[in-house]
Amino acid sequence: MIIKKNYLKKKKIILLNFSVYKKNELFINENENNINYNLDINIKFHIELVKIFLPIMIKKKYGRIIHFSSSKAIYGEVGTCLYSATKTFLNGFSSSIAKEYGKFNVTSNILSLGYFKSKLWNKIPSKIQNERIKDVPSKKLGSIKNISNAIELLINSDYINRSTIKIDGGI
């Protein structure tokens, strides 16, 4: 990762942390390589990114850290034990960052997403799509605009901190 220091000196720092690895596998069948890869991407990468940007945010007295999670991961699903565990990690991590660095105008929040119109959604077999859409009370998918509205809210607010905003249509 290359960070241009001159660029960072002039801008407000907003970290959108989308890092995610998910493999559907029953826990008993997980091998050590997959466990480590899951932990590296879904936990260590979050920690390392925040550690890089936090000192700059503190110095500027401004920072917005927005982690992305999944509503379904929080409740658990068959075959997602590791993924669910790592997404649950974000709750404690984000909460602690929020409490430790709020005094520097640094906020840390989570967007917990549901199902959205996307290329990823289109790769899911239609039978599974139909089953999942039944979980959404409105029976419709979210749009990227729903996510961008929440990001804008978090960027512009200095008082929303240590929150999880569910953008999942009520699943």
Question: Can you offer a commentary on this structure?
Answer:
It is a single chain. This protein is an alpha/beta fold and 171 residues long. The protein has a domain at 11-114 and 153-167: 3-Layer(aba) Sandwich (Rossmann fold). Helices cover 51% and strands 14% of the residues. The chain is built from seven helices and four strands. It has helices spanning 5-10, 32-60, 71-75, 81-101, 119-123, 126-133, 144-156, and strands at 14-17, 63-70, 106-113, 164-167. A four-stranded parallel sheet has the order 1-2-3-4, sandwiched between helices. Helix 2 (32-60) links the parallel strand 1 (14-17) and strand 2. Helix 2 runs parallel beside helix 4 (81-101). It is globular, with a radius of gyration of 17 Å.
CATH classification, class level of the domain at 11-114 and 153-167: Alpha Beta
Q: What's the β-strand tally? A: 4
Structural class: alpha/beta
CATH superfamily of the domain at 11-114 and 153-167: NAD(P)-binding Rossmann-like Domain
Q: Predict the CATH topology of the domain at 11-114 and 153-167.
A: Rossmann fold
Number of helices: 7
Mean pLDDT over all positions? 92
Strand order of the largest sheet: 1-2-3-4
Secondary-structure arrangement, i.e. CATH architecture of the domain at 11-114 and 153-167: 3-Layer(aba) Sandwich
Beta-strand content bin: 5-15%
